[in-house]
Amino acid sequence: MKTNKLYIVVGLIIAFSLFSELAAHADESDQATTLTFNQPIQIPGQVLPAGTYLFKLANSDSGRDLVQIFNSDRTHIYATLQTIPTDRHDTTGQTVITLAEQGAGKPDVLLKWFYPGNLTGNEFLYSDQKEKELAHAEQQIIVANQPSTSDSEMPGAGN
Length: 159
What we know:
19% helix, 39% strand
């Protein structure tokens, strides 16, 4: 009897995992991803306070190079940012970002965002002077700690 219960539990876990995977990636066209930062993060033109944000590709006829950043419930847009495509060697089933560390007292700078499963991501564009500063900064690649879901906390952004 215990064996039958074990099979039922394992079956339910597998079914739930498959459902979660489908729900998280139901509409990949805009690559909507929820990210939680536990410290302020600099993006081009401003600093976002610690919190939860929705990143997504803007609906644009000009291509897939505009990223919009909203609050978690999509009622306020913080920025629409121009990006350029950037590549990586290996894909993951998680969201991945690259941050540049600016030093004590300054927020980390968001450089790149990769949607789960994609080799090509979005690199954010900064002024020429900021690019020169960031070229010498230590970079860290952060993988979301919840696999294959669009609701992820970025642990390296302050843990």
